[in-house]
Amino acid sequence: MSKSMDNLHKIKNSLKRRSRAEARFRWYGRVAILIGLAAVLLLFADIIGKGHGAFKATYIKLEVHYDRDLLGVTSLADTAQLMEANWDAVPKAALRERFADVSGRRNKRQLYKLLSNGAGFDLKDHLLANPLLLDQTETLWILADDDIDTYYKSWLDGEPYAARLSNKQVQWIDQLHQQGQIRLQLNTNLLTRGDSREPEQAGIRGAVMGSLLTLLLTLMLSFPIGVAAAIYLEEFATKNRFTDFIEVNINNLAAVPSIIFGLLGLAVFINFFHVPRSVPIVGGLVLTLMTLPTVIITSRAAIKSVPPSIREAALGMGASKYQMVLHHVLPLALPGMLTGAIIGMAQALGETAPLLMIGMVAFIVDIPQGFTDPATVLPVQIFLWADSPERAFIEKTSAAIMVLLSFLLIMNISAVWLRKRLERRW
């Protein structure tokens, strides 16, 4: 009897230890999840804290007079005159009129640095859009220089950064602020312009268009090829050493570092086929090679998830194997295939290394309009801005990261939504 009691006591102690071990294991998992979430939130907070300021820019209010004699333009329809016109003279004259007490060449040079180097060309675009303003005067908010923008934002935050400004420039900014003639407003340049060496004029539209064109070509190539390969391997290919060799290599390619695909693209598409560098075509081809293993693996998993009874029923009703696959298996596996394709596109969107190898790191100012136009992509644009010495590019880099993360979140949420919306439970 006592032996039975001892055994029962041991069993109870063992169960208690097991319960405590399971409780500790659950808490380890919860702590790990909390640490991961905290790291992600910290990363997001740091990026948003540094990048939110890029969506606003500093503008200065001035009275602008479009003097045809000052510009050297008699007709806005004359292209040659527009090319030779002195567009910078207009914002400079507006500054001299606003600060009439400023004299001396050195002081005037400092005064002109209040405005962006591209202020004259911005006024040119505005005048060409409104030709009746020639010889007229209007009040405009003109984009300030990046150093002025950095100082004004830091000054509003209570931590003024005036390392690259003179005392006179600081006084002028303070004077403009007191009179309500300097302010922050929406930075449309960030979303409507291409890259620039001047931070206040730089935008991400060129990189976004390059990414969209590259991803569109990648999707057009990788999805049909990947789905066709998956259908063949799952439904038609006989199991032998050759197909086993193919499957092993597909799985291995999914784990190959992305820069290897960049080297492959450099050797094959550029050096052998002589495809131009830094165009969406070569970028799409390289990313297609990189995403194909992912698309094939996810498509095969989706095909395997279709119950064998569907195949047996279709064949039993007299359908051929081709009809069974095309009309029954493929439609049921398509949601999983689409999810895998979206995940593959999200992976391709964030890739930088393979695109650096094929020249998409070039400085591109113009917005690409087609697959053969020179272009860069958003991750490469972030790489370029992160390497720039100007302080204003720090918030530009973080803002571009925010846009990239937004695209990635949208694509991943779309994949989850498609899976939940279209999947069938058996």
Overall pLDDT: 89
CATH class membership of the largest domain? Mainly Alpha
**Shape descriptor:** extended
The CATH superfamily name of the largest domain is MetI-like
What percentage of the residues does DSSP assign to strands (E)? 5-15%
CATH architecture of the largest domain: Orthogonal Bundle
* Number of contiguous helices: 18
Q: How would you write the strand order of the largest sheet?
A: 2-1-3
Work out the number of β strands. Answer: 3
Query: Class by helix and strand content?
Result: mainly alpha
- Structural Rg: 31 Å
From the N-terminal CA to the C-terminal CA, the straight-line distance is: 53 Å
Task: Explain what this protein looks like in three dimensions.
With 426 residues, this protein is mainly alpha-helical. It has three domains: 51 residues; 133 residues, no CATH class; 218 residues, Orthogonal Bundle (MetI-like fold). 66% of the residues lie in helices and 5% in strands. The protein contains 18 helices and three strands. A three-stranded antiparallel sheet has the order 2-1-3. Helix 14 runs antiparallel to helix 15 and helix 15 packs antiparallel against helix 18.
